[in-house]
């Protein structure tokens, strides 16, 4: 694998492209317009500098070199994915948006190319059914920020082959990550637990049990978590949290997954967290 397609230039897509560049892999980063791609370029440049500053210094005090960001090709033209060796799709967690991509990729990419859906809740089996290569489709649920996280959930769909899993694991190993294989079930492992935790933490704020900062302090001080659930929600994006909870609610038809009204109201108000500058906390 030398050239990787990355669909979606949001928080996750930019993180994946940055991580690929850091290990010397070329990527084709695709999104709908040039303005989005320019924002992605600036975000990747900032992220690369920050990752370098946060990386441990060597014995001589020197930092690792910055990744070659020229390895990232920005485009709005999906046909430029015709020669990629692997695709990581990072579209927003909405079925109508994600589902439109897979038949398109299927027609453009070579038959042996693996499609990896970076999703926190949507069924891999259902996405794979939109292609002529369901055995070559799986999930790769990256965590945010992508370059800093050492592990990825790898989700095996109903038809996903062993070879496809091995191919994904090889790519992740080159990116410096461990792939943890789980079954295709709504929310998989991480988000089936995390989204319930975040949603319930929002209920605590809505019900006046404690302000956001104190909810997070309990988790950090009492349990040793590096971030509280509401800080985590702001980092992920409250809109993404809401989409994920809605998928769980729809998938299980269980009232325990009902989205908190305060979460929905904040998303309607455009308070998405770090990426909008305001969520449960304010960011400059």
From TrEMBL:
Keywords: NAD, Oxidoreductase
Start and end residues of each 3-hydroxyacyl-CoA dehydrogenase NAD binding domain: 4-184
Cited InterPro entries: 3-OHacyl-CoA_DH, 3-OHacyl-CoA_DH_NAD-bd, 3HC_DH_C, 6-PGluconate_DH-like_C_sf, 6PGD_dom2, NAD(P)-bd_dom_sf
Listed pathway(s): Lipid metabolism; butanoate metabolism
Biological processes per GO annotation: fatty acid metabolic process
Molecular function GO terms recorded: NAD+ binding; oxidoreductase activity, acting on the CH-OH group of donors, NAD or NADP as acceptor
Record bears the keyword Lyase: no
Domain 3-hydroxyacyl-CoA dehydrogenase C-terminal: 187-283
Family matches, as Gene3D superfamilies: N-(1-d-carboxylethyl)-l-norvaline Dehydrogenase, domain 2, NAD(P)-binding Rossmann-like Domain
Site label Important for catalytic activity, positions: 141
Pfam family, one: 3HCDH
SUPFAM superfamilies reported in the protein's UniProt record: 6-phosphogluconate dehydrogenase C-terminal domain-like, NAD(P)-binding Rossmann-fold domains
Residue positions binding NAD(+): 8-13, 31, 93, 98, 120, 144, 275
Record's keyword annotation contains NAD: yes
Domain of life: Bacteria
PANTHER family: 3-HYDROXYACYL-COA DEHYDROGENASE FAMILY PROTEIN, 3-HYDROXYBUTYRYL-COA DEHYDROGENASE
Family: Belongs to the 3-hydroxyacyl-CoA dehydrogenase family.
Protein's UniProt name: 3-hydroxybutyryl-CoA dehydrogenase
Organism: Virgisporangium aliadipatigenens
